[in-house]
Amino acid sequence: MKNSQYFLHDCCARNNAKMLSLTADKGLEGYGAYWMLLEYLREQSDYCMPLSLLPSLAKQLGKFTQWVEELVCNYGLFVLTDDGRFTSKGLQQRMKPLENKRKARDAKAEKAARKKAVNSNTNSSFSAAQKTETNEKNSAKKVENTTLQLVDNERVAKASLEEKRIEEKRIEEIKRKEKEATASEKESSSSGSKSSFWESWLNEALGERSWLELQAMHSGLGGAFLPHLELISKTFREHVLRQGTEVTICSLRDVKSYFSNFIRQGTVTNKRLREVIEKAATTDVYRFEQLVDGQRTYCGLPIPEGAPPRPAVTSVWDERKLCWEY
User: Fold this and answer.
1) What percent of the chain shows pLDDT beyond 90?
2) C-alpha span between 196 and 209 (Å, rounded)
3) Where does 246-319 show beta strands of DSSP type E?
4) What's the pLDDT tens digit per position in 15-55?
5) What is the CA radius of gyration of the chain?
């Protein structure tokens, strides 16, 4: 079909180390979900999708949002972008031949259009020569009207120029006032109150659930982010005070940007943060479970109320025996 969308699929994809890790954790459900996510990405013009759509995708896949987040963030199969989206490098590489083919086709069509325009102009010149005599007879009648039109055009142009100058002056005045207001705000913040406000801004940011969920995916920590949020925020506060950078934080936006860079996946601070969480997790009896909307779960499955902590990552709840089995 002319407009059908497709992408190349390696027949040995299942033997890739990342895919083996995925199927070991999530089985063939994870394998199928991975290819469905690739199909969603293929339908996008730039092969990227916002992370905010993961809850909707999870609903279509019949899975919890956290289950899909772990698939996207924890196996190296997808890449997270700075603007809160995810994509697949493998898909983008496979689509390059098709994109190049499309560009070549568009270039060819553009070249043909230019050639047609040149031919059209050439033919028009011959027709213009035949009409010259008739046009000369009519030109005398149009001279007076043309002169009046030029005068009107000149008057309109002057009026437009004056309006443009007035608008530019107004914009410059607005920018000047904004600059003065920003300078005044920074001066007020640097007077000593800044150091006391940054922690209240941090507390306000940590209270925004949707922003925190985005940061969890951004950090690559997945389901470990929210359960350890108090430890993460404590580590961040200690980092800011140790570096002495609290005086550079002038707004809620500054706090969010600083925190986002601190927990960004692949950074030195992210590596240190993982070490702190792992150390704390060894003493947490619930470290092999996930808490989703107040419900204890494992591998996307609910844990009955009153059940003891899951003893190992391979443990499965036996409904008949009402105990954990290996």
Assistant:
1) 20
2) 24
3) 290-292, 295-298, 301-302, 316-318
4) 788 888 888 898 999 899 899 998 988 988 888 999 999 99
5) 32
Cα angle: 230, vertex 225, 14; to 5 degrees = 165
Threshold 0.70, pTM exceeds: no
Q: The tokens 């107004």 sit on which residue?
A: 170
Question: Looking at the DSSP assignment, which residues form a beta bridge with residue 51?
Answer: none
β pairing state of 48-50 and 290-292: unpaired
CA dist., res. 142 & res. 145, Å (int): 5
Structure tokens at 299: 């591998």
What the block records as the tokens of 117 is 């325009």
Burial class (CB in 10 A: 0-12, 13-18, 19+), 256: middle
Sign, CA torsion 16/18/22/24: positive
Helices (H), 189-265: 194-206, 209-219, 229-243, 252-262
pLDDT per residue as tens digits for the range 139-176: 656 656 666 666 667 777 777 787 788 878 878 877 88
